[in-house]
Amino acid sequence: MLSQIKELLSNAQLQQKIEEATNLAESIKLIMAAGAEKGYNFTTEAISQILTDLNSVESYELSEEELLSVSGAMMSANHTNKDIDWHCTAGCA
């Protein structure tokens, strides 16, 4: 179902209509109607949950510490603004 909703949301015309919608309920109705045209059968609750999940993922920003941890580098706890000591945490020579 997520892939079907993402497919619908990739449509520029539907995106514009959703942006012009005055509230979430209207956006959901637009998505349900677009889905029905393609033979999809979504519940209001399912679309609402997926939109909430998608918005959470899109709006989440990683902190500097999180970025460093996923990149394999970690900043030393003892540093000043002028002197940052980087330590490799992923098998560096």
Automatic annotation (TrEMBL):
It comes from the Bacteria. This is Nif11 domain-containing protein. The lineage of its organism: Bacteria, Bacillati, Cyanobacteriota, Cyanophyceae, Nostocales.
